[in-house]
Amino acid sequence: MLAVRTEEFIGKNAVETANPLVAYKKVSKAFGEVKVIRDLDFNVSPGEKVAIIGPSGSGKTTLIRLLMTLEEPTSGVIEINGEPLWHKEVKGKLVKADEKHLHKMRGQIGMVFQQFNLFPHMTVLRNCTEAPVNVLGMSRKEAEERAKAMLAKVGLENKLDSYPAQLSGGQQQRVAIARALVMRPKVMLFDEPTSALDPELVGEVLDVIREIAEEGEMAMILVTHEMEFAKDVADRIVFTDGGKIVEQGDPKEIFENPKSERLQSFLKRMRS
Amino acid sequence: MSIWSWSYTFEVFPIIFDALWITLAATITAYVLAMVLGLVLAILRRSAFKPLTWIVIGLSEFIRATPPLVQLFFVFYVLPFYGISLSPFVAGTLALGVHYSTYCAEIYRSGIDSVPRGQWEAATSLNFSSTQKWRKIILPQAIPPIIPMLGNYLISMFKDTPILSAITVVETLQAAKIAGSASFRYLEPFTIVGVLFLLLSYPSALLIKKLEVKLNRRSLGKKDKKLKEKGVAA
Amino acid sequence: MINTYIEMVPALLNGAKITIEVLVLSLIFTYIIAFIAGLGKLSKFRAIRVVCTIYIEIFRGTSLLVQLFWIYFVLPFFGIEFSALTAGVIAMSLCYGAYASEVVRGAILSIPKGQTEAAIALNMTPFQRMMKIIIPQAFKIMLPGFGNLSIELMKGTSLVSLITLGDLTYQSLTLRNTNVAHTTEIFVALLVIYFIIALPLIVLARWLERRASLGRV
Predict the structure, then answer these.
(1) What is the mean pLDDT of residues C163-190?
(2) Is the domain of A132 the same as that of A242?
(3) ipTM of this predicted complex?
(4) Burial of A107 (0-12, 13-18, 19+ CB in 10 A)
């Protein structure tokens, strides 16, 4: 199984690096004086599952928040399918894009947050149908069917009428995953999806993410501290530190044969 | 703008400005009354004698739910029938002070309620008398955090003093009205009053906001320290 | 004594009608203005923020009675003449609207940032984020503040008597002029009537406060 996946990965990579789904080109992000991302180049192919690991403060969360348009890059360009995310081409020059352009581009991205961020004033079902109805213009009936299917996938088909406050953290995060899936993004971002959970609830959420990953078509960028899980699910591991990618590659290589000193000491700390 | 007459402005400004002292005197007199009476109400409300508590609560609710202007008329027109004739200024500050004392009492109450139970118990265990408990232990802890809120009521009361004009107290608004009715020009007098109120209340409000931030920071500082101490212990 | 009260009834009923009219109209406009100014102060356009801030600070910084007099006595100078009722409703709405707008703004700012971020991630437009996600949650937080402001507004209606609008207070003052001996009865009745009008507002405000302190589900 693993062998097949690796072969797939190599094959895909060979064909598709020329046409990445997501491309960061010399992207930097600073908050005031603090540089969080420095001149970063980073690609994701269609369908690829990338796990980002690294010490806290290494910029990994910012990396995906830039892609979700929650933070604006200080410099550099991010492209989705070759089209700039934060910029628009006007007369051969890149200028800052307006809300309309961001709206068009965001349709290809979905995100699951560390703190779930469910809408507390809506039922589980409503959480999952509000955007399809209002953003995608679906009929409520169609949206509900799709939402129910996704909620069944995450094992919550019996909680449709509950409110978020009535659910456990693990259940809330599974709803959040279903809510993002309903929008059918091309790439799904996970921002430490299990960090806010009690230890006994981590498993159920990881199982759901694993299942989605195995279905294949959707690309995933996963910021996580769950090393075993990352090794298991990801096609590629990216190790960031100090706002840069220090080392990346095949999960097996990264974990069993880390080359840089910083990755070695990071892995040692994570294991202890 | 030709409609605005500067010469008339300079003519009426001193008259209105003089009346500002009456406004300020009324504000401060009423405020002192509100602060003291408010504290009395807050303490009486905690009385062990339940009927007293109920009377205080009922009276406070009634006073707070009815217009201060009507209370003003009540004090000024009704009390003389019972042998209490007050000058307009005294009647006005009394009514305003009593009205706001019910608000101040609520603020005191929130301050007193936020003093931890253990403080009462510690004071009892050290055999403090009831008065000592309040004066030495509870109030010194209850009052500093509520100072900004009490300050906000000072500004509110300042802005409410124009209603004293209804019982002929010649404060700022009444002075402007008299000047205006004599010349049939209300534009300048009333605008001057508005500007004077704004010039006094807006900076005061900013000052109180600053004080609030400062006090918040101080209490946050305490929390930080506590956390640090915990960290050291661990 | 009972006779005195019965004689007072028609005038006070008339006054109560005006008081409630001013109250209801002012409440409606107050909360409309509150949302416009409260949201305006959060606008991304500087000009809108500045205009709203100036409006809010002027009306919170001066006193209601001064505003009332200005609108009723000064505006005719500029050719803008209002009836006492209209002037009263305008002054009350603008004044309490300024206070209520701070309630609106505070409630909106208290909604966690994650809610906006989740709405962005679901590709909602800024308008949808506000209408579907932020305001429905913020509204519940505003309600206790609205309840208390409504009581304040009710008390403020008595000031319209000073621009000769025939509300409860005005009618009582007129009654007193012709029945000075019954001053006590008239003002006791007046206070009680105001309390009765305030009562539903108080019950509502306390209920909203209690509900808010229990936390939202």
Answers:
(1) 91
(2) no
(3) 0.91
(4) middle
